[in-house]
Structures are given as C-alpha cells and as structure tokens.
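Instructor's aside before we start: the two examples that follow are unrelated to each other. I chose them only because their records fit on one page, so don't look for a connection. First example below.
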Amino acid sequence: HVSGVPLEVMLDGAAARVRLIINVCLDPQARGGGRFRALIEHLLAQAAAAGHAGAIGVANGQSADGFVRALGFQDLGSLPAWLELAPHRLDGERALAEARFARHWRPETLAWRLANPANPLRVVARDSHALTIEGRSTLTGVAVRATLPNAGLDA
C-alpha cells in the first residue's frame, strides 16, 4: 500500500508541484522482493509524467532506509515536535525569506484541511506572516498546533 498525493509547494521562492509519497506499507512476507522499490518508482514515474518538480517521501523507521539507500532520496531529518507551554513567537517573515522549501497553501486547500471530519482544525492565532492552526491529539487534553505561512490566506 502506498499513496502519492500532488502537493503545491514553494521551492527556492517559486511555486512548484511535487508528489507527496505517504502511507508506505508492505506485508512483512512481501518484503525483500523489490516491491517497495517498484511501488515508489511507479509513483515517481507518474509524478514525472504529470510534470511535477520532484517528490517528497514521508517515511517511518521501517521505510526511511529504503527511500535513502535504495531510491536515492535525501534524508532531511526528523520532523521536530515540542510541547508548547507559553505563547510561541515565530518570526514568520524571516523564516519564509530563508526557506528553500515551504508548503504552499491556497484558500481552498486550507479550507479543505481545516474541515477534515476525522480531525477538524481551527485557526487560533494569525498575524500578517503566519497562521497558527490547532487540532486535537491522541492525548486527552492535549492539542496539536502548526504554524503556516499566511501568504494572503483568509481563513
């Protein structure tokens, strides 16, 4: 099982479409026969045919080595997570100016994401540079927040 989702991003300051590769899962009995590589190479060929600028593989501990070693993906490291105990202040203008890669949100893609019935999200703070989005986590009483660039979004 694997999913390949078209994704709009900012790459070195320019809008681009890439393929987000997620949910890679192989039955343990099917491992070792080249199926992982075949699945990912199929998605990469689809992305190239669609004119996508590249692909992003979101890997877990079992698939990360396959992405890097077998397929030549660049390991960008783990996604950071932290517990916020006080209001977080992000210098969004500086972060966006220095970013080589950022998710590009359009009003309709953000509205779709906010309305996810499995985990509805809400905007809890915004300024001229960023939106802070909040949703529930699997831990009782703990919310999860993400800060998104506010490139003209009206949420």
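Example two begins here.
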Amino acid sequence: SAMHRAVMPPTSLISVSASSVAAIQKYPQPIIVIDMGTATTFSYLSESTYKGCVIIPGVRIAVEALSGRAAELPHISLEQPPSIFGRSTIDAMRSGVLYGNAAMIDGMIQRMEAEAKPVAIQPHCKRKILIDENLLLDGLYYLYQKNHERRRPKK
C-alpha cells in the first residue's frame, strides 16, 4: 500500500508541526488542534503522533473572496451580528461568516471523530474550546530544547 503525504508550504508545515508538538506536550490525547490563520487547519494527534490534517481556506480569505468577487457586496469587519438572521447585507454577511465557520468547525470535528473512532476528543465550538495563544511558540520552544539537548557534547 502506498503512503499518502500532504504537501504544504514550509510556513504552514512549521506552524502545524510546532503547534502539534506543543499540544502533545501540554494536553491529553487524542486531540484536534485547530489553527485559524490564512488557512484553517485541523490536525489530529493521537498516541503522541501526528495522524494527519485537514486544510480549509481561512475566514479572512473567505471574506475577501466574497467582497472582492461580488461587486454588490461590501467589505466587512468581523464583528458579532445582532442576530443570526441578518437584517442588512453587512449583518447577513457577518452572520454567514461567523456562524458558517462555527458550523464548519463543528462538522469537521464530528467527521474527524467518526473517522478516528473509538475516540473521545475534547468537544469544541458548541462544546468547550480551549484557546492557547502560545501553542505555536511553545512548540517552537520544545523543538529548540530537544535539538539543543541533542547537540550538547556528552561528558
């Protein structure tokens, strides 16, 4: 059987790798690490191993594509709309972006859980979400420490 590999740009690979290293060090597994940058990535980790990931266009790219490709739609800021039901074009777009992405995240987690069963992955979105703003930096630090230990001359 052939081994399938995901090919990602170096910056994406570094970000996913460092965040995965930090998550393995800091949190119980199995776990899904979600990184919402230019792309939204879902990395699945189990038994201290990176099992794979899903890459989806990020929120900002989606908003720019929506505003840039449809001349009648304005550019919007990402703010909470007063209701899920937009009563203006801007509120409708905000509602679609925010609630649509939340539903996509819920749906992707549900599909990943089903594919990886039996798994008890910590719930997200409608469930409890842990936000760790330092996960990438922690991962880079763990990698630095590990590489530094290897390079030390043995006495």
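Confidence is low (pLDDT under 50) at residues 1-10, 118-124.
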